[in-house]
Automatic annotation (TrEMBL):
Residues 6-236 form the ABC transporter domain. The chain holds residues 589 to 825 of 896 of the full protein. It comes from the Bacteria. This is ABC transporter. It comes from Kitasatospora cheerisanensis KCTC 2395. Belongs to the ABC transporter superfamily.
Length: 237
């Protein structure tokens, strides 16, 4: 796992048509291997914009992103060491969850006999549901299947944009366990959320954003201990 999983320096982004408002402003932080980093902040804080820049989907106005030491730019090939979940993955409804993942995996040119494929399914923890047709899935189950899809191949860095959105409380608990299992082997997870309660138990580190800027960053225990006032205001946002 050579290289620092993620280092961003002075990242800024202003959308076209937005005159004075930066979606992300002078953001810098670093994520070490084995960390589960929670990117936390109210709606509009700039979490999704940040993650889309990390994935190379949109171009920052300023700043630098290094993933395992490689500079990330839109249009450049996405590193195979990075997996990402964003909402809205499409599945074939008449096929089982497993068959959907197998066809996705086959399309990447790798065999389903790959040990990584089996291990990823194990970590995702979908159990028997994998054998059912996707059309029978709840919205939450579809979401969990999309998260499992992002894990196939066991990328060294897994990026999850609001994976708990739309999940019920038991599914949210399971999601926490999935993230912890995923990172247990020294892999790195970045997960965004607008609720501290959803991430504090699974995240080793937090980066709290508000109005595009970093408010505070550090180990979860330090932040939840020292900044309760701050976090209350973030959650109210
Ligand atoms: P949420 O939890 O609602 O997804 P977020 O923290 O992910 O919020 P972003 O989606 O990154 O925040 O949005 C940051 C700011 O950028 C907001 O003010 C938003 O309105 C604005 N914004 C986001 N996407 C676009 C876009 N495509 N065009 C213009 N403005 C945008």
């Amino acid at each position: 796992l050579a290289g620092v999983p993620l280092q961003i320096t002075g990242l800024s982004k202003k959308y076209q048509g937005s005159v004075d408002r930066y979606a992300v402003r002078e953001l810098s932080f670093r994520v070490e291997a084995g960390q589960v980093l929670g990117l936390l902040g109210p709606n509009g804080a700039g979490k999704t914009t940040t993650l889309r820049m990390l994935m190379g989907l949109i171009r920052p106005d300023e700043g630098e992103i290094r993933v395992f030491g490689h500079a990330i730019r839109p249009g450049a090939p996405v590193l195979s060491r990075v997996g990402a979940f964003v909402e809205g993955a499409g599945f074939l409804p008449h096929l089982s969850g497993r068959a959907n993942l197998e066809s996705y995996w086959a399309a990447t040119g790798r065999p389903v006999e790959d040990a990584h494929f089996a291990e990823a399914l194990e970590i995702a923890g979908l159990g028997e549901a994998l054998e059912r047709a996707v059309r029978t899935y709840s919205q939450g189950m579809r979401q969990r299947l999309a998260i499992a899809q992002a894990m196939l191949g066991l990328p060294d860095l897994l990026i999850l944009d609001e994976p708990t959105n739309g999940l019920d409380p038991p599914q949210i608990r399971e999601m926490r366990e999935v993230m912890v299992r995923y990172a247990a082997a020294g892999r790195t997870v970045i997960v965004s959320s607008h609720l501290l309660a959803e991430v504090e138990q699974s995240c080793t580190h937090l980066v709290v954003m508000e109005r595009g800027r970093l408010v505070v960053a550090g180990p979860t225990a330090e932040i939840t201990g020292a900044g309760e006032q701050l976090l209350v205001s973030v959650e109210d946002g």
